[in-house]
Design goal:
The structure holds two protein chains of two kinds. By secondary structure, chain A is mainly β. Helices cover 6% and strands 55% of the residues of chain A. Chain A is built from three helices and 39 strands. The radius of gyration of chain A is 25 Å and the shape is globular. Chain A starts with a helix and ends with a strand. Chain B is of the alpha+beta class. The longest helix of chain B has 17 residues. Chain B is built from three helices and five strands, in the order αβαββαββ. In chain B, strands 1, 2, 3, 4 and 5 form a five-stranded antiparallel β-sheet that branches. Chain B has a single domain, classed as 2-Layer Sandwich (Alpha-Beta Plaits), CATH 3.30.70.100. Classes of the chains: A mainly beta, B alpha+beta. Chains A and B meet through helix 1 and strand 1 of A and helix 2 and strand 2 of B.
Chain lengths: 669, 108
């Protein structure tokens, strides 16, 4: 009887909510539809802490420092909900450390930069396994739908040797929603004024108390056909994408299984829509078709729970089919990757931890471009009551292309009291370059793309970072200051400067380094309102044609101010972010077609969110000041000439954009 | 002068009309709260109940303190609402409920 009443109540509130939802949706549809994820029930509001007789109610922060020796930040769902995180690339709007820029003005590809360096030096992981390698890298930020993500961990500087030798400037690990989360279904609808529609859903079910499964689905369509600057080229390509993932988890007392499969299909169509000058040639079209299949699994055997002793076997495999056309240039690849890892971990006691393991990686792009790399690592961590934490790791790998190499890494964290903590790190990283696969968008340039016989990239990274938790007017001011230095002893340099007729990817001959200094502060000004301000200086230089020069298309500095306000019960949330991107050097101008430097520019975004019991609604805007790079394509009127170039992009390619979205929860309480 | 009196009278009437009867109810739950997730579930659901102004959870003392607008809801309705998300609440009557008059419109 009670159950029946409960059910009736549930149905009544759900029906009321649905009525309201339909009204809101109708309003939104007139706007053009939209949507990005707000989880009405997973969003936590205020956190209450009871210390003796004093009750402290504070707003839960959307990010937190990772407690280990590595300098890492965990971005949780609450933080992701602060902006329109349609995909991974849009998830760093409020993050001071990670920059996201367009790679070019034709493919819609975005790339991240960490410590002022290209995203290729950041190791991408999903579920703590390396992913999105080679040909998958250029567009990978679009392959992870925002609402699928549970959290993102960004680690700066040299990382643990556990996940391989590849991370040079850091690691980004994406954790998807878990099958063993609360059961239910969430549907998200999104629409934006630039002509983007998106629908995605996640659903999970607990088959018994140990076994659970989850399905994640996504569809998007960019159909804007926008050409704001009237250069005859679409500002962004039209991109229909289908994405599907199924995950399973089995959790017992001494054994755990986690695995899944996914598939993604995407078709990008961009390029010229009409001639802007008398032309006898046909239109310059860009088409990129991608089919991607992935599978992964993890088996963990817990041998001694008291000492955290366990053995884990894990691995993933992927097949990435890419077929790209840039005008009359064509690139296609069927890339296959397999990765397997065997791990053993144990705590001898509270102070001493050992982690050791074996790994095997195989990449196949073409018969001449394949590599098999077996490796082994050992990592020892000493922890003295969380006051001193030292982590030393070493790994040895043998590449079928480059032979045997050693990767040492060291981290130290000192926490003398609750106010200060200091981290030091030093480590080496290596990377095999798949030059054409990783940079095939450079084919959308009239210059000739020349690729030399490339060496394996090698770099050292050193970092020092300090965190302060300063009590101020009854609240805590979080202050971070850090300095990172990356020094390449070998690098694949993309050289625009030596020869105006070509883009050459060549081995470094001289110096290449990056220095970054970052200071950021977060303070809860009043109850529910949190302010973050950050500033970063980038000093990135590389040798081009024997001359040490500022790395092109890299901002000299970045400023960020974000404000987030939540009403006491968290039913309303207002977010605003101001980004200031400093100017920088452009590749050496040819025939005066562009300036030798690009200017500083701002970007403002804001979002309002309202949560209801069974759904939530949000509206927002990006690039609200409407600033955009006026001439994103060089010599657009003659795309078949050697001076045509789509890769000289340093700023936003479109003006202000508004969006709205709704997320509906079914079954989750 | 007449206008000022009329205006003051109107404002006073509006103020009285807006005045809220803010009360507090303290409950214990079944099943008990064990962790942050339990707190999250209770707060995440209770916040949508009409008239609820503030929720404080004390896991150690197994108490949930809810501040509400007595013109919009009552303690019984709030206690009943725990059933919607699988909990049963029982009022702790040892404490004298805090009662105060608040004339401003509070944020939800």
């Amino acid at each position: 009887m009670v159950r029946k009443r409960r059910y009736r109540e549930k149905v009544t509130t759900f029906a009321n909510d649905m009525r309201l939802l339909l009204t809101v949706t109708a309003i939104m549809l007139t706007l053009s539809i939209s949507g990005q994820g707000i989880d009405s029930l997973q969003v936590d509001t205020m956190r209450t802490q009871n210390l003796l007789d004093v009750t402290i109610t504070s707003r839960r922060s959307g990010t937190r420092k990772v407690s280990g020796a590595v300098n890492g930040v965990l971005i949780n769902r609450e933080e992701l909900f602060r902006a329109a995180c349609c995909n991974l690339g849009e998830s760093f709007t409020t993050n001071p450390s990670v920059d996201v820029n367009y790679s070019d003005a034709a493919t819609g590809a975005k790339q991240i930069k960490l410590l002022g360096l290209s995203g290729t030096y950041v190791q991408m992981l999903t579920e703590n396994l390396p992913n999105f390698r080679g040909a998958a890298a250029p567009l990978s930020l679009d392959y992870v739908p925002g609402p699928w993500m549970n959290s993102i961990q960004v680690s700066k500087g040299s990382s643990s040797v556990r996940n391989g030798y590849e991370s040079i400037t850091g690691q980004i690990d994406i954790e998807y929603l878990k099958p063993d989360n609360d059961e239910g279904v969430t549907v998200n609808l999104y629409g934006g004024t630039l002509g983007r529609l998106e629908a995605n859903a996640d659903a999970n079910v607990h088959l018994d108390d140990k076994l659970s499964t989850e399905v994640l689905a996504h569809y998007q369509d960019d159909f804007g056909h926008h050409d704001v600057n009237n250069d005859g080229f679409l500002d962004q390509p039209n991109v229909p994408q289908w994405n599907l993932q199924n995950r399973w988890k089995w959790k017992g007392a001494h054994y755990m299984f986690h695995g899944g499969i996914s598939m993604m299909k995407e078709k990008r169509e961009g390029g010229q829509t009409h001639h802007t000058a008398p032309d006898t040639h046909h239109l310059y079209k860009i088409g990129i078709e991608t089919d991607r299949y992935e599978g992964y699994m993890k088996h963990a055997f817990i041998l001694d729970p008291e000492h955290g002793t366990n053995i884990a076997v894990m691995g993933n495999a992927s097949m990435h089919l890419l077929d790209a056309n840039y005008g009359n240039k064509h690139y296609s690849v069927n890339q296959k990757n397999v990765y397997a890892q065997l791990l053993f971990e144990t705590n001898f006691n509270e102070q001493h931890n050992l982690s050791t393991g074996l790994s095997l990686n195989h990449d196949y792009l073409t018969h001449d471009e394949r590599e098999t790399t077996p490796g082994a690592y050992a990592q020892y961590t000493y922890n003295l009551n969380d006051k001193i934490m030292a982590m030393a790791g070493i790994r040895v790998d043998h590449s079928s292309r480059y032979g045997t190499f050693v990767t040492p890494r060291f981290h130290l964290k000192l926490t003398p009291n609750e106010i200060v903590s200091l981290r030091l790190s030093a480590g080496k990283g290596y990377r095999t370059v798949h030059a054409l696969a990783e940079n095939n968008n450079l084919l959308a340039s009239g210059r000739q793309l020349v690729i030399d016989d490339l060496e394996q990239e090698r770099a050292w990274n050193y970092g020092v970072s300090s965190s302060f938790y300063i009590p101020l007017f009854g609240k805590t001011l979080k202050l971070n200051a850090e300095y990172y230095h990356t020094h390449f002893s070998q690098q694949a340099v993309i050289d625009y400067d030596s020869n105006p007729n070509e883009i050459r990817i060549t081995n470094l001959d001289g110096k290449s380094y990056s220095n970054t200094v970052q200071v950021d502060a977060t303070y809860p000004v009043v109850k529910g309102l949190e302010l973050t301000a950050a500033w970063r200086w980038n000093d990135v230089k590389c040798t081009y044609g024997g001359e040490l020069m500022e790395k092109p298309l890299t901002s000299r500095y970045k400023g960020l101010v974000t404000a987030s306000y939540k009403t006491p019960l968290g039913l309303w949330q207002l977010d605003a972010t101001l980004q200031l991107n400093g100017g920088g050097r452009m590749p050496t101008p040819v025939d005066g077609l562009w300036d030798d430097r690009f200017p500083a520019h701002e970007q403002v975004s804001a979002q309002i969110t309202r949560w209801f019991r069974h759904f939530s609604v949000y509206i927002g805007g990006e690039n609200l000041t409407g600033f955009r790079q006026k001439k994103t394509i060089i010599n657009a009127e003659d795309p078949w000439s050697p001076l045509f170039d789509t890769t000289m992009v340093w700023g936003p390619v479109h003006g202000a954009m508004f969006y709205a979205g709704v997320r509906v929860n079914i079954g989750r309480l | 002068m007449k206008k000022v009196i009329v205006l003051s009278a109107m404002m006073l009437t509006a103020l009285v009309a807006m005045a809220k009867d803010i009360k507090t109810v303290v409950v214990t739950t079944q099943p008990q709260m064990h962790c942050e997730n339990c707190e999250k579930k209770i707060k995440g659901n209770l916040r949508f109940e009409k008239g609820v102004k503030e929720i404080k959870c004390n896991i150690e003392e197994q108490r949930v303190t809810i501040t509400y607008d007595a013109d919009k809801t009552n303690a019984e309705a709030i206690i009943k609402s725990f059933g919607k998300f699988g909990y049963q609440a029982t009022e702790i009557k040892t404490e004298k409920p805090v009662q105060k008059k608040d004339s401003g419109k509070k944020n939800k």
